[in-house]
UniProtKB/TrEMBL annotation:
Putative odorant or sperm cell receptor. It is a multi-pass membrane protein. The chain crosses the membrane at residues 24-51, 58-78, 98-120, 140-162, 200-225, 237-260, 272-292. Gene3D superfamilies: Rhodopsin 7-helix transmembrane proteins (1.20.1070.10). It comes from the Eukaryota. This is Olfactory receptor. CDD domains: 7tmA_OR2T-like (cd15421). Its main location: membrane. Belongs to the G-protein coupled receptor 1 family. It comes from Bison bison bison (North American plains bison). Keywords: Cell membrane, G-protein coupled receptor, Membrane, Olfaction, Receptor, Sensory transduction, Transducer, Transmembrane, Transmembrane helix. It is found in: Cell membrane. GO terms for molecular function: G protein-coupled receptor activity; olfactory receptor activity. Signal peptide: none annotated.
Length: 307
C-alpha cells in the first residue's frame, strides 16, 4: 500500500485545458470534432495518393508523409486530453509524460524538416523542370522522409532524456493539457538555465535555419515565375507555392512564439492557445489547403467517389 502511494506521489498533474474557463466542455467537444475531421481528411488524402497513379509524384509522396505526421502529432495530444477531462483524472506518470514529450517533439521537428524539403521540391520543379524526375527520384524522396523522421526522433530523444532527468520538487502541477518541455522545466529544482540556452540553439537550428532556406527557395521560385511566358503555367506555379507557404506560416508562426521566447515571458494561457492553433488545428487545415486548391487531388477524389 505504501509503495502504491509513494508511486502515485511521483506522478505529475495536468491541470487541463483552461482550468478557469467556464463551459470548457464545449471547447473539448469542438477539439474532439477537429480531431475526428483531421484523422478522416488526412487518411483520405493518404489513400488518394496511394491509389491514384497520377499522384505518384515526389510532391504528393512528401505530402502523404506530412499527412501521416499530422495524424501522429494530433493523436499524441487529444486522446489523453479528452480522457483526462471526461474521467476527471489529471495525473500522468513521469514515463508517460516523457513519452508524450518524445512523440510530440519527434513529429514537430520532423515536420519542420519535411516542410523545408518540400520547398526544395517546389524549387526543382519550377526552376529546373527538365531535370526534376532525375533529381527528385524515388530513392531521394525516401531518403528525405527517412531524414525527417530520424532527425526528429534523435533530436527529440536527446531533449526528452535531458529534460526529464531534472528532479522535481514542490508542486507537481503543470498548467497545461499536455506534457511539454517548457512546462516541465518550470517544476525542476535544479538550475536549468544551461538547458534553456540549449533549447534556444535547437530552436534556431530547427526553426530559423529551415525557415531561411524556405524563404531563399521561394525567392528563387518567384524570380523564375516572373520570367514565365505562359500565364497558365505561372498561375499553377503560384497556386502550388501559395498552398505550401500557407502551411509554412501555420507551422512556424506558433512554434517560434512558443520556443523562441525566454521562459520568464511564457504565459500558460497564451501557450495553450498556441498549442491549439499549431498541433491541433493545423492537421485539419493542411489537407484542406492542399486539396481544395489542387485539381489533381480533387480529380482523384472524384474518381474514387464515382468508381
Amino acid at each position: 500500500m505504501d509503495k502504491r502511494n509513494e508511486s502515485s506521489n511521483t506522478d505529475l498533474i495536468l491541470l487541463g485545458l483552461f482550468p478557469d474557463m467556464k463551459h470548457v466542455n464545449f471547447l473539448v467537444c469542438a477539439i474532439l470534432l477537429i480531431y475526428t475531421m483531421a484523422l478522416t481528411s488526412n487518411s483520405i488524402l493518404i489513400l488518394l495518393i496511394w491509389v491514384d497513379s497520377h499522384l505518384h509524384m515526389p510532391m504528393y509522396f512528401l505530402l502523404s508523409q506530412l499527412a501521416l505526421m499530422d495524424m501522429t502529432l494530433i493523436s499524441s495530444i487529444v486522446p489523453k486530453m479528452a480522457t483526462d477531462f471526461f474521467s476527471g483524472k489529471r495525473n500522468i506518470s513521469r514515463v508517460a509524460c516523457g513519452t508524450q514529450i518524445f512523440f510530440f517533439l519527434t513529429v514537430g521537428i520532423a515536420e519542420c524538416t519535411l516542410i523545408t524539403l518540400m520547398s526544395y521540391d517546389r524549387y526543382v520543379a519550377i526552376c529546373n523542370p527538365l531535370r526534376y524526375t532525375l533529381i527528385m527520384s524515388q530513392k531521394v524522396c525516401l531518403q528525405m522522409a527517412a531524414i525527417s523522421w530520424a532527425g526528429g526522433a534523435l533530436t527529440s530523444l536527446a531533449h526528452t532524456a535531458y529534460a526529464m532527468h531534472f528532479p522535481i520538487c514542490g508542486s507537481r502541477e503543470i498548467p497545461h493539457f499536455l506534457c511539454e518541455t517548457m512546462s516541465i522545466l518550470k517544476l525542476a529544482c535544479d538550475d536549468v538555465s544551461a538547458y534553456e540556452k540549449a533549447l534556444v540553439v535547437t530552436s534556431i537550428v530547427v526553426l530559423l535555419i529551415p525557415l531561411s532556406l524556405i524563404m531563399s527557395s521561394y525567392a528563387l521560385i518567384f524570380l523564375a515565375v516572373l520570367h514565365m511566358k505562359s500565364p497558365k503555367g505561372r498561375d499553377k506555379a503560384l497556386a502550388t507555392c501559395f498552398s505550401h507557404l500557407t502551411v509554412v506560416c501555420l507551422y512556424y508562426g506558433p512554434a517560434m512564439v512558443v520556443y523562441m521566447r525566454p521562459s520568464s515571458y511564457h504565459n500558460p494561457r497564451l501557450d495553450q492557445v498556441l498549442f491549439i492553433l499549431d498541433p491541433i488545428l493545423t492537421p485539419l487545415l493542411n489537407p484542406l489547403i492542399y486539396s481544395l486548391r489542387n485539381k489533381e487531388v480533387l480529380g482523384a477524389l472524384r474518381k474514387v467517389l464515382t468508381s
